[in-house]
Amino acid sequence: MDHQDKLVALRRIEGQVRGLQKMIDERRYCVDILYAVGATIGALRNVESKILKDHLNACVKTAFTGKSRSEKEKKIQEIYELLERIKK
Asked: 4-87 architecture in CATH?
């Protein structure tokens, strides 16, 4: 799985986090900081979503087109646990 596009996005997010730190250092208006935090969280969620989509289209699809019942069950459990974690 090639995640190069995610690395580009994560580097951009890294810049956003540095910008947040600067905003706090400069004692910028709280609401402006909160909007910037929200944008950063949204960008992270976008990366999360893309990685999940890639995982489903590659790893999970491979398991489900294979013959191994245990691999299928393993992937179902993996996705279930992941969704439970994301809900929190």
From this structure: Up-down Bundle (1.20)
